[in-house]
Each structure stands twice: as C-alpha cells, then as structure tokens.
Amino acid sequence: MNNRHKLLAYLTFAAIFIASCGKKDAALPEAAPVISGLEQEYYVLVKEAILLSPVIENRVDSLVWHVNGQRVANAMKYNFQASADPGSYSLIVMAYNSGNIFQKVIQITTGRYVNRQTYTNTILTLDASEKFANKPNVKWEVLTAPSELFRLSQSNTASAQFSTVNRGVYKLRVSSGELADTLLVTVKQPDQLQSPYIKKVFDYLPAPGQFVNELPEYAAGDSYETMLNKAAKELTGENANIVTLGGWGGYVVVGFDHTIVNVPGRNDFRIGGNAFGANANPRPNAPFGGSCEAGVIMVAYDKNKNGKPDEDEWYEIKGSANFTAENEPWYSAAVSKNLDTRTFRDYEMTYHRPATETPDGTPQNHVSISNYIRWTDNQGQQGYKVKNTFHSQTYYPAWVKDSKLTYKGIRLSSNGLDESGQGSYYVLYAFRYGYADNYPNAHNNSGIDIDWAIDKNGKKVDLPGIDFVKIYNGVDQDNGWLGEASTEVGRGEDLHMLGTKIETIFP
Ligand SMILES: [Ca+2]
Ligand SMILES: [Ca+2]
Ligand SMILES: [Ca+2]
Ligand SMILES: [Ca+2]
After folding, report:
1. How far, in Å, from the CA of 310 to the mean position of ligand 2?
2. Which of 297, 328, 480, 492 is most buried when burial is the number of CB atoms within 10 A of its CB?
3. Count of Cβ atoms closer than 10 Å to residue 112 Cβ
4. Which spans in 244-393 are helix H?
C-alpha cells in the first residue's frame, strides 16, 4: 500500500463510520452534502491550471481539498496549478456539514501533451492552438501509431482532420518552425458496434431499363418511399442482393454507419454488382470483359455531422475513363467497330414515359417495341429506347408520376463489342478501375481508393474518409439482344474493417 491508498482506505473507513453513526443518531437529520460536476480524471498541460468548481447538493459547512495527502485549500473552488514537470496527482475533496462527510477522489495527470479523444472510423478535426495563429508553414504529422490504417488530411493547414480504423493512442505533432505542440489522440471503439456494410439507402431512382420494376419488384400502389425501402432491404448488411440502376443516369445513394477511412496507398471500399468475365470471347488476347456495366461513383463525408447526405459536398471518383476512354485497352477495338467512344462530362438525358407497353396496343407479351421510350439529350441527339422480348413489364419506373425523367452526369464511352460480328456474342469490356459493377466483386479492381476523388473543378481532393456513396449508370448503350447496359448495385464493403488489403492503382 502506498500513501495514497492508505489515505483512501482511511477516508473510506471514516466516511462509513461517520455515516453509520449518523444513522443511529436521530438528532442529526441533516442530509449529507453531495459533490458532483467533477470528472474522475483530468489531464492538465504542464504549467497550465485547471479550476475545479464542484456542484454541491445540500448544505455544506466547508470543502477541504487534499493533493497527494496534503491539505491544500478550504474553499468552494480549487485552482490546480500544474508544475513544469509531468506528474500524477491524487486529489481528494471533502465536503462537511454537521455529522456528515462526503468525499470525492480525482486523478490528475499533468504532461506536455494536448490530449484528444475520438472514436474509430470517425473524423476528428484538429485545430492548432492560438500560438500558431498567423504562423507560416503549419504542419501536422503522426509521430507514433498503433496501426497504419489512419489518415491525416489537410496536414498543411491550421485545421487538420484525423481518422483511423483501429483504437489505441496516436501521438501527433503540429509545428511551425521551432514552435510545436504534441498531442495524444486516444481512439476508442464506440458503444454501438459499427458495420462494414451499407447501413442506409437515401435515394433511389433507376432510369428506364429492362430490369426496372423487377429489381426490386414494383407492386401496385408502391410509392417512392416504399420502393426506397425495398432498395434498402436489398442493399443493406452482409447478405445484400442487387438492385438495378436501369439505363444511363439511373442512381442510388447509400450510406455507412461510420466514416470509411481514406487510408493512403490503399483502396478503401467497394460497391458490388454482378459483373463477370466472358468465357468464350473469340478475340485473341482480349482484355478483361464480359458483363461489365460501369457505374460512376460519387462520394461525400458527413461534414455537418447530421447523418444525412444533405449539404455535404459530393466528389467524383475519377474512374479510369471519366475524361476519356483512350487509355482503355479495348479502345481501338471499340473505335474500329464504330462504337460511340466519346466521353461527355456534363451529359444530360431525358426519358419520356412510353406511350404504349404493347405494340399496336394489343395485350401481347414478349414482343419487342423499337420506338418504345423517346429520349433527348443536351448534345442535340434524340431517339427511342427499345423494349426487348425478354422483359414485358414497363421499363419506366412505375411509381414515378412525372411523364419524363432527366438525369445528369458523366456519360462514358460505349464498351460493348459484338465479338461474333453477327450480333450473337456481346462482350462488355471492363474499364480499368474506379467503377461499380465493372469487375467481379472479389476482384481487386472493384476496389475504390478515396484518393481518386476530385472536386467539381476536376481538382484532386484530400479527403479524410467518406460516409456516403452515390452510384449511377455511366454507360448508354444498347447491346442487341442483351438489351441496354444497366448497372447493378450490390453489397457495399468497408475494406479496412473487413481486413481486406488492396493496394491502390496510382492513376
Ligand atoms: Ca485510400
Ligand atoms: Ca450531412
Ligand atoms: Ca445489367
Ligand atoms: Ca451488371
């Protein structure tokens, strides 16, 4: 037993003794004083002070303060002044009234570090202290870390952002020339267990397409809200299924229950689909292709911390063909097949509600309609989307009341090549990286590095992590009997939480 423990034992004994005496003695009806409003532990920087001002319930005659067994004050408040050397202190405050003693024990640690606390997979904003105001070349760095799965963003500004996957104590430093502060960031796991999978679906509007109203299934009376719930049922959790985004521009917005940390040099998440490789492509030495229906990915973090993607800025994941498809390994083959290989950065397309679901108004199923859904775009083009023989339901989202739907975004190059030359074998080639439903789910190239994000001016951004993902179909192509390219979206995964390590492709 050290002195502190001896003192504690004595005080506990004394308190019990006095309390039990009080019970027996009916002449002392006064309620014991109760101290609250103090933490159990404090951390104070060396040479700094902390004013302890407890809240006292019931009458009190005096409040006596002891530090490491030494009586230091008899007052309602106590100003603890830390010396120049780090240390640890046991502070006891005792409240007396007639016949009662109430005591509270507090630990005070003094040190040279500024302490911060945060949770795993959460963005912590670190503001440099006042002494750095107007100082040049402010720089943040992580000195020691129990895990390499962390991110320090905006590290050359006075306000940095720190996020990490694993708990523990991280030592950080902020400096400007000789001026420096060291911080200890203690990272805990939140009480609520975090899920590595999609937790919420915020918005869903597929563009007209052959699987619309089937994945998920529309039932008479369904509204936007009920369809949103159906999409959420399909997409959330580990056992997610798929939903269709329909034709070009159709989208879904999903969210996680935590921030996916943007670990430097690694892919951070992926959004699954149903892409697969062709097993009988007649093209010799063909690049990867089969059923690759690239969904463009947008990301955001919950800057205003309200759990919703509302006023938070969206960033584009710059997939390998978001500006041009010229570097895709199948590009020249696509050009030689006269495909539309242009890329439109600010594309807009409007789909009109179909006039009829059956040719000549006859109630026939499984008959194609070539002039089915009229469309126009902002490039002066127009035409009709075809209804094929395999899907007889309406391709227009049946819960939508509007007679036309307009979508905006990037239109990628066409990627579906008729490799048979006679319309019987289409290969939809994969873009190199940066999309959903473009590579098989387990393939490394389905992983997304948040560091590929760019802002609306096309400038690379330094994001600490992301909470929300928007996926929209980036390809507008009709592939003969296969029908239109339609992105499917499936399970979303935080790769770090799942322990999946995929090194990034540096663009
Ligand atoms: Ca990353
Ligand atoms: Ca928000
Ligand atoms: Ca599809
Ligand atoms: Ca697909």
Report:
1. 5
2. 297
3. 13
4. 331-336
